[in-house]
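It is worth pausing here to work through a concrete case rather than discussing structure prediction in the abstract. The textbook approach is simple: state the sequence, then state the predicted structure, then interpret. We follow exactly that order.
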Amino acid sequence: MILVTLAAVAIFLLYRAWPALVANAEEFADVNFIEGNLWVWVAPLLFGTVLASIIALAVAMPLSIGIALFISHYAPRRLAQLLGYIIDLLAAIPSVIVGLWGASWLMPLVDPLFAWLSSNLGFIPLFADYTPPARNITTGGLVLAIMIVPIITATIREVFLQTPRLHEEASLALGSTRWEMIRQAVLPFGRSGMISAAMLGLGRALGETMAILLILSPGYSINFNLLQAGQHNTIAANIALHFPESSGIAVDALIASGLILFAVTFGVNMIARWIINRRAEFSGAN
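Step two, the predicted structure:
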């Protein structure tokens, strides 16, 4: 049933997107949010989607691994149970609530940091020309990181807890410290699980809508100006922004962008599965 449902979604998206996929630029002349043909319009959105997700993953992965290690190997049992319960609850917070939190609390918090980066490191294009408020792709990536940390942490925590006890005891018996034991036994055993958790988080970040819609000042540029507002947007947020007022070829174009996002997400998961299968024979589980 899962495979049938997945195939039905793909067929629906392809069927509805086909008129936009084969249309030329003249057919989009009456669509106010599309300039040029479909691919010229989608390319910046795809770039913004991937860029925001990479920022989120770069922030979330080290944080999640640290939290998971603390819960599984450092915290007392009662504290570990409490923290695990809190992490699971965080994953259930609606994305619109996280977006409102980011817009009302996080943006004022990071504003001085972004201003300092732009003043002192503005010669680097990544940090140039910051102007408040912080409605840029970096803030969006930070909000996405907060959203995917619970998912990644919960997965990695369970993987670390599956490390064979004999492996840990053998490492400690050879005179290793607790951190050396973690490097020698826990992290190698959990490598595939960490990759799986990262791909789960990346899939969530790629498809996130409301949090990004509430944070970003949208733009259609392909650049790495991380602190400038009005430069980037994501596919999902763009669909949510324009779909209610669209009709005709505009709806087909939005569905076509959804098809592209579907293909990217599917491709990411396929690559993750390939990486995991390649590393399975070297895993500590074997």
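Step three, interpretation. The chain has a mean pLDDT of 87. DSSP finds eleven helices and no strands in the chain.
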